[in-house]
Amino acid sequence: MEDKVNLRDALAGFDEPFSPRIVGYLNDYKLQVAKTKGEFVWHAHPDTDDFFLVVSGVLTIQLRDREIVLGPGEMYVVPRGVEHCPRSNGGAEILLIEPAGTVNTGDAPAGALTAEERML
Amino acid sequence: MEDKVNLRDALAGFDEPFSPRIVGYLNDYKLQVAKTKGEFVWHAHPDTDDFFLVVSGVLTIQLRDREIVLGPGEMYVVPRGVEHCPRSNGGAEILLIEPAGTVNTGDAPAGALTAEERML
Questions:
Q1: Contact A25/B99, CB-based, under 8 Å?
Q2: How far is Cα B112 from Cα A60, in angstroms, rounded to an integer?
């Protein structure tokens, strides 16, 4: 990372929901900003935890037995192997950290929401 | 992480500067909140990058050839092996992510600012 990243500025650079943009790396982890709107797909990441921090809006991380409701400045780590489905009726902007190579839809069948890794 | 973490609430739980508190893990990385006030020590981490995100206040990360000035919602990753010295005259609150086991003072001689790993 040559220079700092302002999360709000980075998020202002695109509109597409569920299409994370890489803004830097922490060792072999990708630091991504993303927008969420509506419901994602149920999936799990068998090999890694999944870090979410909400920058603006409200993101609900649905788990099979409960919901984690995140507002600005709140973070949650979905443990590896745990099924989850992010949902954000009003829209949210987030920082998402996962190992590089992690597929956003995890073990769900690849589909319209499966995003290629891309830099901002 | 059993439940979500609200960064501001977590930071309200202690006052000591340069004494990071672990609030969760992302795989083998520790997620820490910390307060900074004044100047830290020059050091590098030979084996890892170092992630900083400012929650409140202003943190200046001094590098040998320039300074990175971070306000709320701004993040920077110090590359592995790069000497740096955080400074915050007015005080700042941050999220800090490093591999578990990373010593806060890096390769500098252990001293008063060297902190044990501790949970919030």
A1: no
A2: 42
Is some CB atom of chain A closer than 8 A to the CB atom of B97? yes
Instruction: Tell me how far apart the alpha carbons of residues B67 and B86 are, in angstroms, rounded to a whole number.
Output: 9
How many residues does this entry show for chain B? 120
Tell me what the pLDDT averaged over chain B comes to: 97
If residue A62 lies in a helix (H) or strand (E), which one and from where to where? strand A59-63
Chain A positions touching B79 (Cβ under 8 A) are 1
Report, as an integer, the average pLDDT of A43-59. 98
Q: How far is A3 from chain B (nearest CA, A)?
A: 7
Rounded percentage of chain B residues whose pLDDT exceeds 70: 100
CB burial readout A79-102, b (16+ within 10 A) else e: beeebbbbbbeeebbbbbbbbeeb
Closest residue in A to B94 (Cα) is: A73
Give the CATH number of domain A7-99: 2.60.120.10
Which residues numbered 19-78 in A keep a CB inside 8 Å of some CB on B?
Answer: 24-27, 29, 31, 48-49, 51, 53, 55, 68-70, 73-77
- Quote the pLDDT of residue B1: 76
| pLDDT bucket at A59, cuts 50 / 70 / 90 | very high
Q: Which two tokens stand for residue B69?
A: 């000035």
Q: A51–B74: do the CB atoms touch at under 8 Å?
A: no
